[in-house]
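Take our chain:
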Amino acid sequence: MNAKREFALPETVTPGLPPAASFAELGLPPELVRTMAGLAVAEPFPIQAATLPNALAGRDVLGRARTGSGKTLAFGLALLARTAGRRAGAKRPLALVLVPTRELAQQVADALTPYAQALELRLTVVVGGLQSGRQAAALKAGAEVVVATPGRLADLVGRRDCHLDQVRITVLDEADQMCDMGFLPQVSELLDQVRPDGQRMLFSATLDRDVDHLVRHYLDDPVVATVDAAAGAVAAMDHHVLHVHGAEKFQTATEIAARDGRVLMFLDTRQSVDRFTRQLRGSGVRAAALHSGKSQPQRTHTLEQFKQGEIDVLVATDVAARGLHVDALDLVVNVDPPADPKDYLHRGGRTARAGESGRVVTLVTAGQRRDVSRMLSEAGIRATATPVRPGDPALARITGAKRPPGVPLPGSAAPAAEPAAGKAGAKESTLGFRGLGSSPARGKESRRTAEARKLAEARRAARVRRGR
């Protein structure tokens, strides 16, 4: 991010402990050590090495690290180790992790559950989109650790289904996004209710002014750990800007989606996500949509399908820009470029995670070039620009694009086409965006028939574009 938008890091009065060279020197409970061995967690990532010694010692921690850098275990191992052996009363958790989205809440819970179970700690998730009655019942039964989104937790606290006066350890994960989403008042209200003498840890990919408010008001002489540059660029991540013609944008995106391997594709609106997903499935590409208009069970099911390889393409709004980790996801495509540099960084953060490599591709039309160039500059990203058209070898080289199967999947419908003159129009009506510069075998076309076919293709592309 642009450094001008970030606040100066606070100075630590009491020096912190040095980074850990290995997990072995941290003195973690044997149960955690055995679980880590079983999960092949062998060496600490930089953010873990920098923060765990101080977090285990009970110090407040301020950590800046990009998504996918290992933040969850950086705070999670310390939180669980320091909570082990304690028992929560009804409706009174002992440790709290606040996150901005349901997806991130579930991901944090999934990552910490094996360790919590090893220590016989009860962990529950409190998020919107699911039945609050079940969540209230889990809190009443007793849960030492709660992973929650601010809105739903505030609702349960307001209904006296949860009390925070026994919370000894509080973590704010992805604090910048919580502020961006307007949760700052709720987060502040919740922090005012936890034990004033408790430990607080704040982790964020960027440190904006709203995050500064949380740091100044709620962290006491925090140990500061910064393991990523403010811009968030990652050496193992390649960035490409593909200059496309507006009428060929979705045709190009369809070919990219048909590649071998999984791909995450971002669009701006729920309507455009649904429309493009239908287009892909009508072209024979195994795709599914993810956005805030889906119920939480739907979103969870779709994410699991993507992670298990049951679908190859996840088409999403920015709801998937954080809290989504998929092993070996090596390509993220911005079909619609983000306007904000932070959104670009967090979308791209879905790939090149935990030491892996990845590629971020952004489709840019002529009218978007200036804004995208400015956004990338503010994000500290240097991208390789390449003009492409459907079927170009450069498109295949950069993204693995290829011709989609063309056979609609069960339960999907091929996108309707604008009627065209004569038999050519009838053929085109059941074909999606073809791409790769190919078309169904046909005899020599008359000039009028060829013009009618091209006009029908342009109309289909324009109709999808208007549906954003």
Remarks:
- DSSP finds 17 helices and 14 strands in the chain.
